[in-house]
Design a protein that fits this description.
Strand content: under 5%
Number of strands: 0
Structural class: mainly alpha
Shape: elongated
Largest sheet: none
Radius of gyration: 18 Å
Length: 129
């Protein structure tokens, strides 16, 4: 039991150390804080999740997370504020939401991967080595 607890503490410290190294690298690269620590990421950290800064995720992870996250928050607002009054059929609404979510996810995945390469950022696993 004590060994598992120490291992978890070490992993937590390792994540925190990498997170701080990543944030330092992002700041030194000239990436604005709103881009290196967006509100969604701050919220996940506040909830206790060990989420990497988005610049250190893979393209597919960012595309999936951003697409699903955007769709989950955008769809209800879109339905309530605009599409509900237009009496759009549910099938068209679902197709629109999925298409916009996919485009947004792909765009954000490309943005983060391009920015990481442009600034020659380290890989997550190599931050402390």
């Amino acid at each position: 039991m004590k060994v598992k607890q120490n291992k978890k503490e070490f992993e937590g410290m390792s994540f925190e150390a990498r997170k701080e190294a990543a944030l330092k690298e992002l700041k030194e690269a000239g990436i604005w804080e709103i881009n290196s620590k967006p509100p969604a990421l701050l919220f996940f950290w506040w909830l206790g999740f060990k989420a990497r800064p988005f610049h250190y995720n893979s393209f597919s992870r960012n595309a999936l997370f951003m697409g699903l996250g955007f769709t989950a928050f955008w769809a209800p607002f879109c339905w309530l504020l605009q599409l509900y009054t237009l009496k759009m059929p549910l099938s068209h609404f679902v197709i629109t939401v999925v298409a916009v979510g996919c485009v947004f996810g792909l765009a954000m995945g490309i943005n983060y991967k391009f920015t990481a390469r442009k600034h020659n950022l380290s890989e997550w696993d190599k931050l402390l080595s």
